[in-house]
Design goal:
By secondary structure, this protein is an alpha+beta fold. It has 3 domains: 258 residues, Nucleotidyltransferase, domain 5; 73 residues; 79 residues, Gyrase A, domain 2 (2-Layer Sandwich). The strands form 5 sheets. A 5-stranded mixed sheet has the order 3-2-1-6-10, with helices on both faces. Strands 13-12-11-14 form a 4-stranded mixed sheet, with helices on both faces. It has a 4-stranded antiparallel sheet with strand order 15-16-18-17. It is built from 13 helices and 18 strands. 34% of the residues are buried.
Length: 481
Amino acid sequence: MITRSTIALSIESTDVRLLVVSGGAIRCWASAPLPAGVVKNGLVTDAERFASAVRNALQQCNNPKGKVIIGLTGVRSISRMVSLPRVKTAMESNAIEYAAEREIPVPLGELYLAWERIGGSGSMQDYLLVATPRDIIDPLVQALELAGVVPDALHLSPLAVARAVNARHALIINLEENDFDLVAVADDIPVVMRTVISRSNVTAVEDRGQQLTDELTRTVQFYNTGALDHAIDPNTPAYVCGQLASDESLLGMLAGTLQYTIEPFVTQLRHPPDFPLAQYAVNVGLATAPSIAGRNRSRGPRHAAIPNPNLLRVRSLQRRKPINRLLPALAPIPLLALFVFLLQSGLAGQNELSSLRAQMTDLEQQVSEIDELAAALAEFESEITELRAQRQSILGTGDKLVQGLVAVTGIAPPGIQLISVEEAGEEIRLEGKGQNASSFVEYVSQLEGLGLFEDVYVNHFGDDGDDNSVYFGVVCVMGNG
């Protein structure tokens, strides 16, 4: 029996990394550098040079053949966990899209939305939603095709790292040159997933370590304030991986400042002793199927695999059909079911026919009402389209400051009240009040997910004292690009 290889390709801002796995063993790994700016915040800006780097990495492993899985940075991606009433499989996608429209502050037409079930109880089903801008994924796929690569799946790197670590409870820090991932796993669920862009001109170990420590401490603190079932325990082990995981001075500083014990992670994949596991953690996670997720040191047996929604699958689907097209199409279904019932029952008497006519009259009335509703929805959708066009006209002016000012006010969730918005040079300073700490954490995550700011940091934060309300100050630093 010939074992098909899995080719895991992770895309970073500094290089592309390749891992070839077959038969539960690592067969080859390679890295090809990317010139500065070819990939910026996940966006491929130079397809030719990007494709050249991909071909370079493939050639180092003798152009392997097999299933190709791509890992993409979490910059500008949005993740949400939602709980919905259980519905039939045929209705599941529509229910999730409806929930996503409420939870995600970006129009779904600009995103590829993937999801995966992550548990639930009783009549409720939990889902992990992952949304990434189309203007990131489309150029990436086109550049890969230019390199002769047709991917089978595309996953976010933060979730791939969590799968590589394969721990039931973990804090994971994936350190790259220009950004870092913070992933918290509780009971096999990625309850926190953030990708933070490193501050510009930060190269000193002390500065880099301080930013990382501050972000991790703040993230855990804010999350635990609103967490009910999956709080992050102080005894949760921490794992460091990525390109900078080999920096002994940085690791030493983190070990001395973090309140969490840093542990090395291992993999069930067989590999040579010189394989740089930490550097290729994303690739290992991409190549590791749930079936080979087993014990990892003393962490006990695994009970569930880390979810990893495939963004490439949804890209291949047609644009979702508007609801005003679906409703008329669904209208004849009750009529068809009624006729099938009559044929099976053999009802042919006059009384039955009269009853049928009455029911058909009622159904025709329902169809008429559905048509009226569809017309109203079409008018509503037209208004939404016009508003989105106006929004795009504002955002397309090229003035990043205008974009930032519009964005910080436009994405504020219901639990956030902005008291003041001040522009100061390259900064937008926000003062506001949150209904609770959870709403504040959500707002900060949305600001970071916009991809408009070089840095987003909390200036001050405190509770109201009388209730769960919090007062905060946030500074958004505009990028130079």
